[in-house]
Give the backbone structure.
Amino acid sequence: MGNKPIALFLLEKGARMDLFCAAMLGKLDVVKAAVAAFPGAHKVKGPHGIPLLAHAKRGGPEAEAVVRFLEEIEKT
């Protein structure tokens, strides 16, 4: 979790992209689409019980927009 070079390497080798990886990599369009399709998806715990927002925060500056989006929808 939070290791972008390893995540990118694994994705290049055929690993599955999931919502938590998308959040860490700053893929706002993917995160928004998942939340729109499955309301409440942002509240589901990921691997090891880690929340989606924590994954996004591990993404650093590239995931800042995802962090803001998730923080905003968690207020509602």
Remarks:
- The CA atoms of residues 31 and 37 lie 10 Å apart.
- The chain has one domain: 4-74.
- The chain has five helices and no strands.
- The chain has a mean pLDDT of 94.
